[in-house]
Amino acid sequence: MTEATVLRLGVVGCGHIATEQVVKWQTAGRVDVVAGVEPNAPQFDRFAKSFPTPPVQADSLEALLADHGETVDAIYIATPHAFHAEQAKTALLAGKNVLLEKPMAFDLADARAIEAAAETSGATLVVAFNGSLSPHLRVTSEALAAGDFGRIHTISALVSENWAGLYDGHWKQNPEISGGGFLLDSGSHALNAIIDVAGCGIESVSAQFSEKKPGVEISAALSGRMQNGALVSLTACGDTAPPCLGQLTLFCETAVLTVDPWGKRATIVRDASGERELSSGPARQLIDLFIDVCAGRIENPSPIARNIEFARLWAATRQSAANAGQPVTIQDMEG
């Protein structure tokens, strides 16, 4: 692929997020949408009418690959959480590069199966976590890895949203499809950012949930220890006033860093010299990053390995919450 490459794209899940993203990419001349999979006919019609040349509707991902496999370069998956793993495996085993909305998987076995599918096919998967793909978070992670602020002692995180009301009756509050509640949905950005900026996974975790209904956590309190020894805490509340808010505060040896888990704002550094922004490069469209990763021009900023760490953390967090906050060692999740 070259910088001028127009990616021929198949889209699975043609809802609001996919429409918003893909229209922007096509308008910028970065993709040509060949076909889409969407069981909701009115929703697919809205999606298709957003493009000068409407994409073909396929009955399933398998049908899309069978009928358009020769004319599709990559697959973008924006379906509800429960479908991510099987669809990602199917696309990868067909040799297609995959751009996948978060979370990659909320089940550790599914996460490992995706890893195996990618290893078998040699295809690339990028998980669309906003923070990992942001230049602000990337430069923060790199500075911490280089030791610019010394050792990370503690990480304090918070995330809040009017999630209970905003998604009342939505699939996000159906645990069979969503895999969880507020912490797995909006809160996953904070969990992922913790792993990302620290450059390692969480070693052990203790968590407690308040649930809107069984399997749908609405608020959560989490504490643990990172693999690098840093202590971490997260407070998540999904039943409060809008808008959606989030922040990570990293207390390091020589500075205190304030990080936006979505990567929307520059990291603020407070040290002996005062307060400043950590400079980073310009923001780029998600699709441009994906194209560059697939072409080997840049390292994958949200790879399968990091998202396996996320799946391990989620499994341990749920286990701890189910046992009144008893600590769980993450490595025990895979025996």
Strand order of the largest sheet: 14-13-12-11-7-10-9-8-15
Described by its quaternary structure, the protein is single chain
Percentage of residues in strands:
25-35%
Low-confidence stretches: none
Element-level helix/strand string: EHEHEHEHEHEHEHHHEEEEEEEHHE
Number of helices: 11
Rg, nearest Å: 20 Å
Distance between the termini: 41 Å
Shape: globular
Largest sheet: 9 strands, mixed
The secondary-structure class comes to alpha/beta
The total beta strand count reads 15
Please give the share of residues in helix: 25-40%
Average residue-wise pLDDT: 95
Could you explain how this protein is built, in words?
It is a single chain. This protein has 335 residues and is α/β, with parallel strands linked by helices. The chain contains 11 helices and 15 strands. The strands form 2 sheets. A 9-stranded mixed β-sheet has the order 14-13-12-11-7-10-9-8-15, covered by helices on one side. Strands 3-2-1-4-5-6 form a 6-stranded parallel β-sheet, sandwiched between helices. Strand 11 (245-252) and strand 12 form a beta hairpin. Helix 6 (135-145) runs parallel beside helix 9. The mean pLDDT is 95.
Quick synopsis:
With 335 residues, the chain is α/β, with parallel strands linked by helices.
Descriptive labels:
11 helices; 26% strand; 335 residues; 33% helix; alpha/beta; 6-stranded parallel β-sheet
How does the SSE layout of this entry go?
Blueprint: E1 7-12, H1 16-27, E2 31-37, H2 41-48, E3 56-58, H3 61-68, E4 74-77, H4 84-93, E5 97-100, H5 108-121, E6 125-127, H6 135-145, E7 152-160, H7 163-166, H8 175-178, H9 188-198, E8 202-213, E9 216-226, E10 231-237, E11 245-252, E12 256-259, E13 268-271, E14 274-277, H10 286-294, H11 304-322, E15 328-329
Parallel strand pairs: 1-2, 1-4, 2-3, 4-5, 5-6, 7-10
Antiparallel strand pairs: 7-11, 8-9, 8-15, 9-10, 11-12, 12-13, 13-14
Helix pairs in contact: 4-5, 5-11, 6-9, 9-11
